[in-house]
Amino acid sequence: MSDRQRGSRIPEFRRLSLADRRRELAARAELSGDDLALLDTGGLTAADADRIIENVVGVYALPLGVALNFQINQRDYLVPMAVEEPSVVAAASYAARMVRAGGGFSATADLPVMIAQIELRDVGDPPSARARIEAAQAEILAMADSSQAVLVSVGGGARDLEVRQVAGATQSRLVVHLHVNCRDAMGANSVNTMAETVAPRLAELSGGRVGLRILSNLADRRLVRVSARVPFSALASDKGGAAGSQVAEGIAAASRFAEDDPYRAATHNKGIMNGVDAVVMATGNDWRGVEAGAHAFAARDGRYRPLGTWKVEGDSLVGRLEMPMAVGTVGGTLQVHPGARLALRILRVSSSEELGMVIGAAGLGQNLAALRALATEGIQRGHMTLHKRAVGGPSPHPSGERS
Question: Counting C-beta atoms within 10 Å of the first and last residue's C-beta, which end of the chain has fewer, N or C?
Fold first, then answer.
């Protein structure tokens, strides 16, 4: 199949019938008839669901769409999104088309390192305890690895150790961080097992007692960074509206508002997470963990800030996003959820890092579309048009719904 046939640029995709969209998707993602059949149920039967959570009585479905036009690091992606909110898929596709005019998204990702926290309470001499723990680092890392032979066999495992003293209102505690390379898994189970494995030895070394042993969802060792450059010509309003330079200045001003005001930053970041969460959910990952990490990272210096920002540079609008991205392509729900595995096949990602970069691009793209709407006709015009379509009202396609 040619690069064009595999590409994410599919003009007038939204105008196709549901059956024709599926045929187009099947051809580009090389899906089988059985794969397409999963799209009728979301890929999850009640029997499958009964293996995932407790007290199952049925299955709750969300719409699954495909965002188009995404080009990331010079490669095209069809991006599956599971979301109930109208306009998210359309807006992401439209934004990706604008970014594509500037060469597409550029993205990098840290190694997939998660943090296991072991809390040590009632430590009598914290400086001495810290020194003893740091001196035993090799022993502790080896002990942690001994509990995760499969992870170690694929090149993962404990990589580093950090000791922090955390003061509280009633007590001071030592907190030991294990930095664990989780490879292509999100890693929660491995990290938690490692924390429980090494906790008794750390208590011996510190002279204290074990408190909590669990991962941190502030995965600041596992960041993705995404940037995009959009030429003014791609931002211009239709039908004699604002020039591209005016739209760019409006978007940059809206971004500065989010940088200056945490009340605005909360809504700005919600827009980013509209794109992020939809892909995280479609791929069977933990959207609650990603949300927790994102918002903690946004407030890491004591003030809540935007995860993505936009500035005018020369004759282009330039956006940058940085955020934690603890996601996996193996393990967890993926083992039992055919729909999540199908979403990954549509994406054609080969690692957790690559998946994280795609998700970050979806977040930055969604942010661009929202800010462009705010800077021009307002957020409600396109959103409410699609909302009316969802509830059965008239549905002329807004300018934001372009595929």
Answer: N
Check: CB of residue 338 under 8 Å from CB of residue 43. Answer: yes
User: Which of 382, 402, 385 has the alpha carbon at shortest distance from 394?
Assistant: 385
Q: Within a domain: residue 402?
A: no
Closest by CA position to 400, among listed 389, 391, 378: 378
Q: Are residues 269 and 340 in the same domain?
A: yes
Domain of 171, CATH number, reads 3.30.70.420
Which among 281, 329, 345 has a CA at the least distance from the CA of 36? 345
Q: Give the other-Cβ count within 10 Å of 326's Cβ.
A: 30
**Tokens read off for 13:** 């995709």
Angle at 76 between CA 272 and CA 95, to 5 degrees: 35
CA distance 203 to 129: 9
Reported as a single tens digit per residue, the pLDDT across 188-202 is 999 999 999 999 999
Token pair 């187009």 is found at: 24
Which amino acid is present at 70? F
Q: Is 396 helix (H, G, I), strand (E, B) or coil?
A: coil
- Residue 396 placed within a domain: no
Please indicate, yes or no, if residue 282 is contained in any of the structural domains. Answer: yes
Chain segment 108-137, per-residue pLDDT in tens:
999 999 999 999 999 999 999 999 999 999
Q: Are residues 259 and 320 in the same domain?
A: yes
Which positions ≥6 away from 47 have C-beta within 8 Å? none
CA 279 to chain CA centroid, Å, is 7
Structural domain containing residue 162: 113-216
Q: Which tokens in the block code for residue 40?
A: 């009728």
Query: Which H or E run includes 345?
Result: helix 338-347
Q: How confident is the model at residue 379 (pLDDT cuts 50, 70, 90)?
A: low
Could you tell me the CATH number of the domain that includes residue 271? 3.90.770.10
Q: Is 241 helix (H, G, I), strand (E, B) or coil?
A: coil
The C-alpha atoms of residue 197 and residue 143 are separated, in whole angstroms, by 7
Q: Please check whether residue 397 lies inside any domain of the structure.
A: no
State pTM to two decimals.
0.92
What does the block give as tokens for 39?
């799209």
Q: Which of 364, 299, 287 is nearest to 325 (CA)?
A: 287
Q: Which two tokens stand for residue 148?
A: 């995760």
For the sheet with 308-313, list strands across it: 106-109, 223-231, 316-324, 308-313
